[in-house]
Every structure is written in structure tokens, then in C-alpha cells.
Amino acid sequence: MGRSGSTLIERLLGELPGFCSVGETVHLWRRGLVEDERCGCGQPFSDCGFWADVGKEAFGGWHRLDAAQVLRLKDGVDRTRFLPVLLNGAREGLLASRCERYTELYHRLYSAVSLVSGAHVIVDASKHASLAACLRWRYGARMRLLHVVRDPRAVAHSWARRVARPDASPLSSEPEMARYSAGRAAVHWMAQNACLDALAERGTPTLRVRYEDFVADPDGEFARIAEFAGYTALPPDVTGGGLELSPGHAVSGNPMRFTDGPVGVRADHGWHEAMPPWRRRLVAAVTTPSRRRYGY
Questions:
Q1: Does residue 1 form part of some domain?
Q2: Which segments of the chain have a pLDDT < 70?
């Protein structure tokens, strides 16, 4: 679920040779094509040379895509409400047909990113379990799922903050990052993590990483993540100055995607003091069954 520290891990993976991180492509169709928001390189999506080349390779140019039609297709399959069928349903019928057409867009997108970047591993930080379930239909075990989980009380506290989106454009429908109430954040945390667990139980290669373990031992955890993602060499140390974030082309996501330079990893435990006790108790009560499953 968002606000779990996944953007830093995505950026670090994108620095490995043969890897390319692209941000949260689940939002590309609206925030890129329609609202022309800023790419991680700082340019509006329409002015970014990287994404222009990707669009030409994938679709003959972004102008060849009907963005409204793509968004209607997305709403018809990439939604949490469809997860029971996506996880358990037969490969026939209307939803299966939509899934086939929807994932064809991603297949062409990823293939184009690989050609333009020269990378053989594409890191997509989209955090929709429903998108992962769709892509599983197409890729099977070729898709590897990195399941990043964080204490739900910390997640709920982060979702309550008001944060401006520096990538927003005059056309943006969301000038600020989304905000959730404590109860809604708790329910989403339960649902998203349960669905990701369900994907793992159905054979999707999955590695679970706890935010708290990553910030406590960045080098050890990143080495474990890199190996899982198929990186065969010894990854550089995160805390020893071996990795710096270079400007990238993440299409959407946390504002940290605009950060470059030396990597600094530190734990954010401010929620312990800043989160009102009643909110903490509410989130703890709602998430008790799953929270214990993850060691919280």
C-alpha cells in the first residue's frame, strides 16, 4: 500500500545495471496522457524525450491512443471490486476479454521501455493489487512481486497528511496527494495486503519486505531484494556511498521521485508521537488480525 517506503526501493532498483524504474504506470493514462503532469526528469510528460520515444515504439505515438477509451477499459477491469474474479475466475467471459486488452497495453508499454532504455528488468511501482492480478494473467511467473508492508498505524498517519503534488499541472484533477481517514486507511491496508498475499498463494513469485526491516538494515535488505529481482552481481552498498540516485523518468508517484544525489536512508517513526491516540487505537483494532501476521 502507498506510504510504505516503496518509492525509495523502486529508485534504488532503477540504479542497477539492466534495470529501469518507471514509477507508477497505473496512473500514466490519466496523469500523463490527459493531464500532462511532470515526469521524474522535471519535464511535462508531453515534452519528455524518453516517454516520447516509448510512445512511438509502443503505439506509433501517444496520439494514436484514445486516452478516454483506455481509462474506460481500466475502470472496467483494474478495480479492487474485480479482484475475486481476477484471482479465481475462469479465463473466459467479458472480464477476461477486458483483461486481455488491458494487459496488452502494458505489454507493449514495457516492451517499448525495454527497447528505449536497454533494460531487461522493468520496475513498476504501481501499488494496485488489481493491476498485479491482471498482469499475472499475462505474465505468470515472469512477473515478480515485491510486497512492501509497513506498520498500518504509520501508514494511516501518513495518509492523513496534507501534501502538495509537485508534479501537478494546470490540468491536474488532484493538486494534492490523496488523503484518507484513519478508518479508511486501515481498511485499505487490510484489503491490499490480503490481495497481495493471495497472489503469492496462487504461485506469483513474491518477496515480502517490511519497511521497518529495510530502514534498520538497508544494505542487507536491498541485497535480498536485488537478488530476488534477478540481479546476479553483488549490489553496491546503500549506506556506504555506493549508490546515488540519478534523474529518472518515473511517470507518477511519491514526490521523492524528483530527488537525486546521494542516498540517505532513515527511519520515520514520527507517528509514535504525532498520531492522536484515538486514531492509533482505531487503526490497531481494525487491523489486528493482519497486523500480527506481519509481525506488528
A1: no
A2: 90, 242
